[in-house]
Amino acid sequence: MDSRFCRVVETLPGLVWTSLPDGQVDFLNQRWRDYTGLSAGETTGWDWQTTVHPDDLPHLRERWDACLASGVPGEAQARLRRFDGAYRWFLLRASPSADAAGDIAGWCGVAVDIEDRVRAETLLAGERRVLEMAASGQPMAAMLDALCRLVEATIGGCRCGVVLLDARGARLEHGAAPGLPEHFVTTIIGRPVTADADPCAMAARLDQQVIVADLASETRWPADGWRQTGLELGLRACWATPIASIHRKVLGVLAIHHHAPRTPAASDQALMEQFTRIAGIAIERAQNDAALKRSEAFLAETRRLSSTGGFSKRVATGEITWSEEIYRIFELDPAVPVTLDLILTRVHPEDLPSFQDMLERQRRGSDYEHDYRLLMPDRSVKYLHVVAHANRGEDGELEYIAAVQDVTQRRLAEDALAKARSELTRVARVSSLGALTASIAHEVNQPLSGIITNAGTCLRMLAADPPNVDGARETARRTIRDGNRASDVITRLRALFGKKDATIEPVDLNEATSEVIALSLSELQRNRVILRQELADDLPRVIGDRVQLQQVVLNLLRNAMDSMSGVADRPRLLVVRTEPDQDDHVRLTVRDAGVGFDPQDAERLFDAFYTTKSGGMGIGLSVSRSIIERHHGRLWAVANDGPGAAFAFSIPERPGGISHALAGGVTDAPDLGAIWTSAVTDARNVIGTT
Asked: How far apart are the C-alpha atoms of 626 and 637, rounded to whole Å?
């Protein structure tokens, strides 16, 4: 080979070689020898194959044998070992050279370093694959596994792993580590995110890259644990880089391990920045998808439990789209197209006019709420509540987005509750009437007995000779007095237990309370109760229903008497007090000296059917609180410092408006007052006739 040719060959930017016709190498240029670190004698013949990566050699030999057999040029890609043991990708091209007779006299070739191009292509393909996996909703573990393999293929001679942070950001969790032994990974997973745990935990804690160039000489972490395990596996370097979201929240750490001490070069840093960016996208997308699925599952379950569905309607075309839940509510097959005519077959006939009015409001483009009923094929009735919002799309077409809730159970429960409250009120009042019957009979019998006695006396005085006219006249006056007394008792009885609607009017609470006390006076005396009235002078009137408020006072008086029925070691003192209260309210308090109650049960006393009395029904205080709350007031109980308890209510003088529901507080009761009035009338007729 002449000197001029040698100079040309040595200056070519590649690894140049020549071979004999059978493929045995007979020349390698200096660049080849410098790259491999081998002499010309060590790579001639077929010894050059020792520089080829074992994984690439079969394919390269196949291509080379094909060229030798066909005698045509060819090329192949393979990794060649550098003098320091690292492999780089090369493009190897070979062409035959012919002699004067046209026969192949030998081969010449060149190997060009394409490491950067192959790395870029590999990186681009791997990046595209990971991003496609993220876009298609692949599991996070699969995406991170693919990313780790991409890192290992791009940065030669390394092992890659990804650790994640738990929901609280307090501990490390496993992400992926396809090239690392499991027992090494377990030394890292579960560690607290602190700077003194390991490089991954430090990188996550400080949100900055942590480089361990040589594990053997590292002193920042204990020699045992992950570092000792890594050294036993032949790992000598670790580069830990935080993975962050687009909002700079640390999601995890990318860890690259090497089998030799190594510090990242500028190209390595650029690659790690790119890898962590891809990892951040994959992790954040997977976490968002998982959160969205949980939210959708929660929403679907919430809709199912609350019997709420959604629909959209384009007003111009009448196109209606239903959710699965609405099909369930209407009990229709989801395969059936939704039309207005189909909906009308389910609407209750009595609600069709209001439903048509709702459709008219839709055409006007206003938001609306509507309640209507469905009449199902089995003649059962469902109650629906609709809330709709109107908006216009980009095309200007009016569209409604609405929610439909099946409120049947709620409506039935409300109706049942209203009936129960009404019945409880009636039972409470009638039971109170039963308990007061003896007292009322005593009150009425006294004047009636007086009437009969006076009438007999009057007859005797008139039958005397001469008649005692003055005495008879005085006796007649006493008869009239006793008749009026009986009439007053009956009047009070009719007001309290008669059948009438609630009357909202100014009420003198002192006067109303005095009437209740008058009805209860005989029973108070029989139970040896000492009554002390402390009714405030100039007490402002309240606005409400007189009879309902008297019912509350009566219930509090009876409870106080019952609580003192077994008291024998102290006076049975009952205090009824009225007074102005703060915020323009009026307060009435009934304090007894009875057995009292446990302070922990202060609120339970007002629960329906909760009672501390052996024969009680537990409805009186519940009904009483309901009445007071309808008067915009409150009813409560407190234990006395000494024996007994105090029950009090406070209602406003001039409430902002009394609820129409007050009318529900008075329910049908036997018109017993009419019976007593008739008896008194008969007595008066007897006297008048006499």
From this structure: 15
Query: Residue 671 pLDDT > 60, yes or no?
Result: no
- CA 339, 342, 348, 353 dihedral sign is positive
Residue 636, Cβ density class (10 Å: 0-12 exposed, 13-18 middle, ≥19 buried):
middle
Give, in degrees to the nearest 5, the angle at Cα 655 between 652 and 660: 120
Question: Strand pairing partners for 619?
Answer: none
- Residues 17, 29: contact at Cβ < 8 Å? yes
Question: DSSP letter string over 154-183?
Answer: HSTTEEEEEEEE-TTSSBEEEEE-TTS-HH
3-state secondary structure of 651: strand
Check residues 315 and 662 and name the one with the higher pLDDT.
315
Hey, how many other C-beta atoms are within 10 angstroms of the C-beta on 485?
A: 18
- Listed in sequence order, the residues at least 6 apart from 618 whose beta carbon sits closer than 8 Å to its beta carbon are 607, 608, 609, 610, 611
Q: How far is CA 95 from CA 104, 179, 262, 404, 429, in A?
A: 10, 40, 40, 78, 116
Longest distance between any two alpha carbons in the chain, whole Å: 186
Query: Is the torsion defined by CA of 93, 98, 104, 107 positive or negative?
Result: negative
* Distances in whole angstroms, Cα of residue 609 to Cα of each of 85, 91, 613: 89, 93, 11
Identify whether 466 is preceded by a cis peptide bond (ω within 30 of 0).
yes
User: Exposed, middle or buried: residue 605 (CB in 10 Å: 0-12, 13-18, 19+)?
Assistant: buried
Query: DSSP assignment of 324-356, as one string?
Result: HHHHHHHT--TTSPP-HHHHHTTB-GGGHHHHH
Residue 585 is encoded by which pair of tokens?
Answer: 């309210």
- Listed residue (497, 500, 511) closest to 435, CA to CA: 497
Segment among 50-64, 173-187, 305-319 with least mean pLDDT: 305-319
Q: Which pair of structure tokens corresponds to residue 556?
A: 């509090």
